[in-house]
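User: Please write out a complete single-protein record containing the residue sequence and its fold in token form, without commentary.

AI:
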Amino acid sequence: MGHRLLNLVIILLLLPFTHNCSQEQRDHGREAEKAYANLLYALHTDDQAGAVAAVELLDRRLDELRTQRFFPLQEERKDNLLYLFSHADQDYARARKNIKAGNLEFARYDLEEAVSAVLATNLISIRESYLGTIHDFLVSWQEAYQVIQDPTRCGLDATAQRRLFRELRNNWQQIRYVDISPVLYTETDIDHAAFLTKRTALTAALAKFLPLLKKEEIVGDLSVAVEQVDERVWGLVLLFGEPEFGVLRAK
């Protein structure tokens, strides 16, 4: 599995999205990102068959990226980057294993850890990728969604729940106005008007939902509001995925 180390870094929005890359490299990177978006959605919806298909597609896209030549890393950064990449590689390997075994909740956690390790490299190309930029928000949303659906499932006490809801608010505030890079996402790839429409719809849903977390605690019936937000979150994510993957893409 170690031979996939550099490939994982690439899919999780590093080297293929730099200004030093060729158009072919960017195209391969986008194809890999599409598979990554598919995988996120399949894991969120507990769709093992979809997750298996998505991770197998992701692996094929990673193999395609292995044939590409990228700029050399600066010598002084190699040790730190390789340390983070090794952690990402191990976490991704566990995610793949858990997907195959049907342990999707563990796979979600492993994939989140892999992405977090890659993001910790703080390479500029990460900030140019939309899915990389909103990663923290997606993690906090999925955790909040699970807690609201079943407050006892995650075993969080009231203090931990308040911290989680606070993180959700903060993470959303940090990315709510983020636009997509025209260098990375052309109009033939991502319709900018569609992106703005989906982002606006998510903003409106969250504007109704977040005040219901009165004093950062669960109050009242949130079932309708939370599902509306969830639909819009994944409608936005799947805009970056394969066109035929996931019913929310058309919404």
